[in-house]
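Hypothesis: this fold can be encoded by more than one sequence.
Test: take the structure tokens below, design a sequence, compare later.
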């Protein structure tokens, strides 16, 4: 799926999670942020994604800080190591059609046997 919206993610509080887990969390959130436009749907998709990935004991809450900036709380609600992680997503804008086209070409080349030198370059 193409990512249309751009967000800069910042981990405000790790909640004791290790760097690898935080990296996975940020990557997953970046994917959802780029493809879901409505905040209500975003909240449901993020909650389900973390339940699938980390189990039913993990819950998320989404708070809109300003028009498009978002604060995401992730925490454990059942027995086990307790953690509360906060991620801030700052809206950066919308990707241009040129960026989307370049991304699509790059993905096609990576998954193809055609080398870059063989592609015709339009003038």
């Amino acid at each position: 799926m193409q990512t249309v919206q751009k967000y800069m993610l910042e981990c405000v509080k790790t909640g004791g999670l290790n760097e690898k887990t935080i990296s996975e969390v940020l990557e997953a959130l970046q994917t959802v942020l780029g493809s879901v436009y409505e905040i209500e749907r975003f909240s449901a998709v993020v909650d389900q994604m973390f339940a699938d990935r980390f189990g039913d004991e993990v819950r998320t809450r989404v708070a809109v800080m300003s028009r498009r900036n978002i604060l995401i709380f992730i925490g454990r609600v059942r027995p086990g190591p307790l953690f509360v992680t906060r991620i801030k997503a700052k809206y950066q804008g919308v990707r241009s059609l040129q960026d989307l086209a370049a991304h699509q070409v790059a993905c096609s080349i990576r998954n193809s046997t055609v080398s870059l030198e063989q592609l015709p370059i339009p003038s």
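The helical segments are 19-35, 39-54, 97-110. The CA atoms of residues 39 and 64 lie 8 Å apart.
Hypothesis status: open.
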